[in-house]
Amino acid sequence: MKNKLKVFRAIHDLTQEDLAEKVGVTRQTINAIEKSKYNPSLELAFKCAKLFDVTIEDIFIYDGAEQK
Amino acid sequence: MKNKGRKKMELKRSKWQLIVGSIILTFGLVLLAIFDLAFLGMGIVLSGLMLIFIGIHWARKPKTELPSDERYMRINEKAGFNAFWNTLGILAVLTYVDFYFPLGQNFRESVTLVWVVGTISFIVHRFYYSRKGFK
Description:
The structure holds 2 protein chains of 2 kinds.
Chain A lengths: L1 E2 L1 H7 L4 H8 L3 H8 L7 H11 L3 H4 E2 L7
Antiparallel strand pairs in A: 1-2
Chain B lengths: L14 H19 L4 H23 L9 H31 L6 H26 L3
Helix pairs in contact in B: 1-2, 3-4
């Protein structure tokens, strides 16, 4: 799964720590999501989408990659 | 540029570590001073001090660095699952070895081995999933 979290974060001028605090996770988790090392839960994806006032599909793009 | 500033210590967050650590520390000091149990007393004093230091360490960390979110929970779940099967595996191997080369009554050493394998497996898997990531 690809994502544009870093782009939206830059648009809203937020650091990883700021975003982490707003959505209630650790900075490491935001970093892992941005590097596509971790797929967030649906709840976290909704929180991010709501924060940036976009839909989940605008941030997270499902590319059909095989699940590990 | 944003001014991050120095994060203040939130001792309230680690109050249980500090309270229990202080109690253990006091207990160790009592054992040392009154009952003259140097070895046991020192061990308990060290345990208390470690708990207090852990509490202070967590209190100094910003809220966004505390490992209690969904990713850490999933890492713990995956590492725990793998550690469980590794522990079961080592038990199976021990049983198999005991079948052909009887270990006798050496239960303590067997338990220690199982405990070490389980613990190390959990720690290694946690580190692995934390670094490499998972989907």
